[in-house]
What we know:
Order of helices and strands: HEEEEHHEHEHEHHHHEHEHH
Number of strands: 9
Helix content: 40-55%
Radius of gyration: 18 Å
Number of domains: 2
Largest sheet: 9 strands, mixed
Number of helices: 12
Structural class: alpha/beta
Mean pLDDT: 86
Amino acid sequence: MDRRTLTRGAIKRVVQLPPAPELPEGFTLELPGRGTTFVAEIEGPPGAPTLFLLHGLACTAYLNWFPVLRELSERYHVVMMDMRGHGRGVRHGRFFRLRDCADDAIAVADLLGIEKFVPVGYSMGGPVAQLLWRHYRERVSGLVLCATSRNFRGKPQERLFFMLLPAIAAGMALRRPGNIAVDALAKQLIDAPADARLEDLDVPAWAFAEFRRTSPWTMLQGVNAIGQFSSHRWIGGVDVPTAVVVTTRDRFIPTARQLRLADAIPGATTHMCAANHAACVLAADKFAPALLEACASVASRL
Length: 302
């Protein structure tokens, strides 16, 4: 019996039914000294590389990745988790830190007996993936970075946005019930009209319950953490196969910023997706081919 089987046998799992039949069953894991989080795993073909999927701000693992899970699982061993403060993830304390999210991912990999894996980060998951390489290089075999950047507040208007956001979000949360405040912030992130109803978007009904699992406070802290992140001093040292999926109609993370991330990483391949920041869900027909191409690029160089 190998180490992975032994490790898994020692884990007490609480299987949870997924919100839709096409999704994999998940389970809770108690991360030593960190708290309880939610994980889903799809074995994939024997010996396939492991992809560790890291979702974006205000999402859950199910919500961010459901359109691509079937195709990914045909080629890879897939692991995904709800990051702290999001969905069923670890309850964060007073401060939300991206480094804590990276440490949580390593704790999950340890419990599942996974030695090396490819972090696949979308939006906020991109900085988490970059931090995994920086602090746990021996565990990271490659990187796939989607709709993300090496920093997020270089221009004056971007600095102003991150300076004003706490006041805007706090006022929004005080004036509106929790779900409405979350919906309003979400529409800013996905570039939807202010008067649009989320229910009118082309998203399954179960997804809205998933989306509203994240509080306005976590969203606020998440945006602040993203605004503080910068890898521009060290991202050029990445020494594992890397692919960058660029959302070319993105107004939240401008295309030029995403391209600079790709240019900064030696040997990184670039894969274009003609959609906005919500491409993972609202333009899955365009995002899925770009993601699969990016993952194949990395897998071929492992």
